[in-house]
Amino acid sequence: MAEVLRLADEIGPDRLSTTDVARAIGLSQPAIFRHFPTKGALWLAVAEDIANRLQGSWAAAEAGAAGPHARLRALIGVQLSAISETPALPSILFSRELQVDNQALRDVFRGLLGAFQSRLVAVIRDLQAAGDMKRDVSPEDVASLLTSLVQGVAIRWTLGARGFALVPEGLRLFDVQMELLRAKEGACDA
C-alpha cells in the first residue's frame, strides 16, 4: 500500500495505472490482478489501510492526552501528521477515482470523516461541559470548523508545493480557532 501511495503522490492518483504499481513493486501486471481483480479494488484496499492506520492513530493520540483540550489538539495534530506523512491523501480525496469512479472508495472516506468528526464532537462536548468552550455553538458545528481547518491548511500546503511545515501551521491555526471558541470569564452563554 505504501508504494501505491508514493506513486499516487508522484504521478497523481488519476494517472496511476496498475502497470505503474506492478513495475514499482517488481511484479507483472497480471500478478497485481491476482491480488486485486480491478483497479478499484486496489484503491479500496489502499483506503481501508489508510482508515485502519488513522483510527489507530486517533485512539493512541486520545489515550496519550490528559484532559479534553489536549485530546482535541492531539486529534487535530495526528490528522495533520497523517497528511504530512502521506501527502497523496489530499489528491486522492479530490481524484476522479474517488468522486466519480469508485463508490466503495468514497464510502470508506466518508465513513472515516464521520468517525473523525464523532471523536471531535465527543471531546468538544467535554470541553463545553467543563465550561472551557462556548456553549452557544453546537459541538457538531465546531467539529465541522475544525475538520475544515485541517482540510483547508492541507489544501494550502499542497497548492503551495509543501512550502511550509504542515503540522505546526495547522496547530497554530487550531490554537487561534480554540481561542475564538474559548468561554470567556463572566460571559453569558445562550
UniProtKB/TrEMBL annotation:
Keyword field: DNA-binding, Repressor, Transcription, Transcription regulation
Residue ranges of every copy of the HTH tetR-type domain listed in the record: 1-54
Stored PANTHER family: HTH-TYPE TRANSCRIPTIONAL REGULATOR RUTR, HTH-TYPE TRANSCRIPTIONAL REPRESSOR KSTR2
Matches recorded under InterPro entries: BetI_C, DNA-bd_HTH_TetR-type_CS, Homeodomain-like_sf, HTH-type_TetR-like_transc_reg, HTH_TetR, Tet_transcr_reg_TetR-rel_C_sf
Name of protein: TetR family transcriptional regulator
Annotated DNA-binding residue span(s): 17-36
